[in-house]
Amino acid sequence: MGGGFVEETTWNEKNKVSFSMEKKFNLDRSPHEAGHENPFLSSQASINLLGQPSRNSEFAYPLNERFSEIEQLDPRLLESLGKMGLDRMSHIQKHATGILMQDETNDQLEVTGKYDMMAAAQTGSGKTLAFLLPIANRLLNNYPASSMQALVSYIRRSVKAFESLESIAGAKEKGPKKQYPLALVLAPTRELVQQINNELMRLTVYSMLRSVAVFGGEKPSWQMQQLSRGAHMLVATPGRLLDFLEQDLISLRFCRNLVLDEADQMLEFGFEPQLKKIFEPRLYHLPSSEDGRQTSLFSATFPTKVALLARHLLRGDRCVSLSIAYHNPDGSKPNSMVLVPEWGANPNRNQDESETLLARIPAEIQQHIKLLPQEARNQYKISAKWLDILCETISEVKETATEEPCRILVFCNRKKEADIIDTQLYQRRYSSRSIHGDRSQQQRDQALREFKNGHVEVLVATSVAARGLDIPNVTAVINIGCPNNLDDYVHRIGRTGRLGKKGQAVTILDLTNDIPASVKGVCDFVKAKNPDAEIDREIIDFARSRSSSANEYGRNWRNQKERFSRD
User: Where is each Helicase ATP-binding domain found (predicted)?
Assistant: First the structure.
């Protein structure tokens, strides 16, 4: 394959994968393992469907328990799933694949997704595969007969883009400078983009489908080289994607599969201007929703901006809102759930979103709050006593850990704190690394890789690592100081307690740099999940000392000085 152009007969063939490549993608697990090691899969859940299609008496979709039961699932995808150790489907996978895999043929005889989706699902529930599998299956089943021919026809018509028809053959050798992806997944951070693309590469390794990750933090030349080899699916951060679009390296003309993951964070991080440009058909030719583009939007919360974005991108008469909340370990229903609003509904600006976030905290996470003694508090630096308390907490976690290796995530609110704590832990003979926005992409990748492999037991990070990263078997999350908003708190502690496994979340407060409303929000969450939890009286008094509305809590993030990566 060269430049993304694949002959029709070749597209349906199985890609030959070496044993070393299978090992690289960890494709050596038995399908029978997954059901036993993931009790999360057997959990009961409350499902809520909203939207115009759900009110139609003819609306129905298959609910399969296993991937092998999905009709017309490409055998190459099924083989990948089996070698990833995946057999049974989680609730989000059952419902999302059932809805998103329903296809139809448009006036141009192109096969497109029939329904759009807005969804919220608990962290670690398998949502990435839930939106990747329907797209990959659609492209593999229909791409040779429609999209590839449309791409070739477009190249032949575009005399200005290619000086002669021979350039099509030349593209098989060197690859055209411009690529025409058929699917686009947008995510807010470079780490999440890499994670999604790695999952996609594992899923499609036995096919000719090629995916490319586009993100900032590294020189664009390497990504340009990867693009030149072909990009049937693109996973990108908005900033770098817009750079490549403006350089005319990418055209979205044939992109009829669109996913927005962590949509609330893309807006919170300031990506709205870039998104508006990307979605403007007159600029970069992204097919509109009326032209049969299927759009899926996944978000932890659904504030006003997300609801308005959904109204702009999704097809109202074909949009299904899917909410899933997993039951407690004792089988009881959750006290609350993230209710995804119906498309076009007017957002309630005064609605207390803390209930929505509370529902996203897995019952398996044990939350604790610690208070530094008065003599250890310092507004301007991390004192030695601070580090003593942190080390004591790490030791407590390691003593109670039931699995090896023990992985502990330590979150800070500032990059400087992360570096100081990492250095001090290293001096105290802890195996630690730190990641934040000032680290190079290579440094961040290496730190995450060592942490995942168990070579590093403590990873110190700012919120750059909190969003959507799939780090398996994190034993505990420790917050140094109170996060500046409830949303960050929920996503931070959501790194542990995944797939039905127990996890711990410890927040250490000194009350000198903490915001009362922020502290109150965390205290409310701890008490809501465990009414018997003990919280120091000084913390409670501090939380009540000023205005501590939970609604105000979510807006305190704007006071942060740390910049998130926007590319």
Answer: 108-320
Assess if residue 3 is contained within a domain: no
- Rounded Cα distance, 139 and 182, in Å: 8
Taking the C-alpha atoms of residue 430 and residue 391, their distance in angstroms, rounded to an integer, is 9
Please indicate, yes or no, whether residues 377 and 452 belong to a single structural domain of this protein: yes
Q: Tokens 């407690």 sit at which residue?
A: 328
497/546 same-domain check: yes
Asked whether residue 565 is domain-assigned, the answer is: no
Domain final position from 295, 326, 358 = 358
Residue 531: alpha-carbon gap to chain centroid = 31
pTM for this predicted structure: 0.71
| pLDDT-based confidence at residue 468 (cuts at 50, 70, 90) | low
Q: Are residues 207 and 333 in the same domain?
A: yes
CATH number of the domain at 166, please.
3.40.50.300
Whether 564 maps to a domain, the answer reads no
250's CB contacts (< 8 A; 6+ apart) are 178, 179, 180, 181, 227, 231, 234, 241, 244, 284
Instruction: Measure Cα distances from 210 to 11, 84, 176 in Å.
Output: 11, 19, 15
- Nearest Cα neighbor of 435 from 427, 269, 476, 451 is 451
* Number of neighbouring beta carbons within 10 Å of residue 489: 26
How far apart, in whole angstroms, are the C-alpha atoms of residue 443 and residue 463? 16
Alpha-helix residue ranges (DSSP H) falling in 285-383 = 304-313, 354-358
Q: What is the CA radius of gyration of the chain?
A: 24
Question: Sign of the C-alpha dihedral, residues 120, 121, 122, 127?
Answer: negative
Read off the pLDDT of residues 67-118 as tens digits, 9 standing for 90 and up: 999 988 999 999 999 999 898 999 999 999 999 999 988 766 678 899 999 9
Q: Which of 8-17, 148-157, 438-447, 549-558 has the lowest mean pLDDT?
A: 549-558
Quick one: 204 and 341 in the same domain? yes
Which residue, of 324, 358, 392, is where some domain finishes? 358
- Contact assessment for residue 77 and residue 140, using Cβ atoms and an 8 Å cutoff: yes
454 with 497: CB under 8 angstroms?
A: no
Same domain? For 513 and 460 the reply is yes
Domain that holds residue 236: 8-358
Q: What burial letters (b/e) apply to 328-339, b meaning 16+ CB within 10 Å?
A: eeeeeebeebbb
pLDDT, tens digit (0-9, with 9 covering 90-100), for 105-160 = 876 667 889 999 999 876 677 899 999 999 999 999 876 455 566 556 655 655 34
Domain count across the chain: 2
Asked whether the predicted pLDDT for residue 430 surpasses 80, the reply is yes
Count, residues in the chain: 567
